Amino acid sequence: MDTNAPLIETRDIVKHFGSVIALSGVSMSVNRGEVLCLLGDNGAGKSTLIKTLAGVHKPTTGEFLVDGRHVTFTSPRDALDAGIATVYQDLAMIPLMSVTRNFFMGREPTKGVWPLRYVDFDHCAEVTRDEMHKIGIDVRDPNQAVGTLSGGERQCVAIARAVYFGAKVLILDEPTSALGVAQTSMVLKYIHQVRQKGLGVIFITHNVRHAYAVGDRFTVLNRGKTLGTFAKAEIPIDELQNLMAGGKELQVLSSELGGMV
Amino acid sequence: MTDISHVAGHTPAEEIKKIQDERLKEVSFVTKVMRRPELGALAGLILVTIFFIATADPSMFTLAGMMNILSPASQLGILAIAAALLMIGGEFDLSIGSMVAFSGLIFGSFLVLTGWPLLIAIAATFVVAALLGGLNGQLVIRTKLPSFIVTLAFLFILRGLSLVGLKWATGGSTQMRGIGDKAGEGLVREIFSGNALEGLFSWLAAHDIIAKFPNGTPTVTGVPVSIVWFVLFALVATWILLRTRAGNWIFASGGDANAARNSGVPVDRVKTSLFMLTACAATLVAILTVLDAGSTDSRRGFQKEFEAIIAAVIGGCLLTGGYGSAIGAFFGAIIFGMVSIGLTYTRFDSDWFQVFLGAMLLLAVLFNNFIRKKVTGER
Fold this sequence. Notes:
Chain A has helices at about 45-55, 75-80, 100-105, 120-135, 150-165, 180-195, 210-215, 235-245, 250-255, and strands at about 10-15, 20-30, 35-40, 60-65, 70, 85, 110, 120, 170-175, 200-205, 215-220, 225-230. Chain A is an alpha/beta fold and about 260 residues long.
């Protein structure tokens, strides 16, 4: 394993769906302990790119490297096994199930021999409480339903779950788009913690402020192409905003509305 | 003196602390109880029991009376527990009633027409049922149609096939006789028909612990095997739901199939297995009742699909999936048996049964919805 190589790298990824060109040459990379923000307006190809990284879609052409080695994923399971965990915006948690059952969903540790193989849910509840405590969320009762948690807490549980199960790269699909201010800052704070642990984070958003708050580098997508990647020091927030929204129109709109956009 | 003042100075504070502690524990205990989906069914069972203690002839609550209630409850209960697991997994099976009749036909044919030994006939019937259940499941998954529609189709297909098949097999009758004679005696027969624990009941009667006839045989000679199957199935299903990986997958598949898939749960496999389970539960009921009656007919299991779903809903299952309990369906089925049989012990017209049932269903759903919203923070 080449430790200097990026955790994930794509070179000129192209994805066609029949006659539709969803991605036409996307290059990006994420390093250890880095938050890469993937910015783009609706239809820029963000979802297609995430799904390609997560193993849902196979790229038509282009290179995909994990730890400097070429990989081809045929299913989401392959991506998970390679340490790439994706947290989808609202498809991560089941509200009617307890925090513990959600936390271990799909990866329940078992004890005993078949047919008496069972899951030690008491132990699972302890692990869940500890893991949540580490990120500053006090789940008094891990057996309470996820539906009783706030949106921000749910996102944090989903992220904590991915980290606990050994993810090296986290792909967060618009984790803050449905959240209020306090909830958003809770999630952003946690993304910062995850970065400090040495994980790579791909943070997908169309909110430039949220991206600028935690991002180290920014890759802007437009119409299936990368417009470029910028380090935080290289680009001020206004410029990033303009780049993402296609520049001119937004400036016009901004002056019409008295600089409020 | 100083000792006393010391103690007096501290005791009240410690007592307050202790009381507060107790209150904390009490609250968490109440929440814990509230969180159990079967709470409504248990409360319902207690209410119904109180009602019958007040109105029914005391003979209802003798050992013989209990067996009278539990016998039909157990047959329904086996279906209801399977239906509950499937409902928690997010699907319906309206074909279980018809499946009872169809399995009865298949089982009877294997015994009477092909002359297979009992054990082989039972195993083969379960294989056919599992295949049909699997077909139901695969149709639901591949077509993405609601299971309500797919299994409604099979409600009619299987009922029709049972009629046509019975007439074909018997040369025009809708009843197939002589199954009891062909089944023979032996261990396999004893597992699927008659009474269990007869030795224990004789012993209890001999020691005057339970009622007996003047000649010394107990008035209740044993527990009908269907009740034993019912209790065992309830225990195993509850254990699977609450303590195993498969159980977590069932909740997840019904709660949100997409989220479950994203987390690596094999949703399609879980749902197909559950459809196979309901078909096999219907087959178990068919074998138990056919062996007891010695014959099978085309009306067997008629409308049992609704009764099973009602028992599951009374037991706390949510119609939209992802929430419910097997032990709740167990209680739901007992409520069913108690009301249907219990009314004959009262001065009420036993046709009040259906009114009672409908009202019970409505109450149970309202109560369960209320509790669930409180506990799960659903809005």
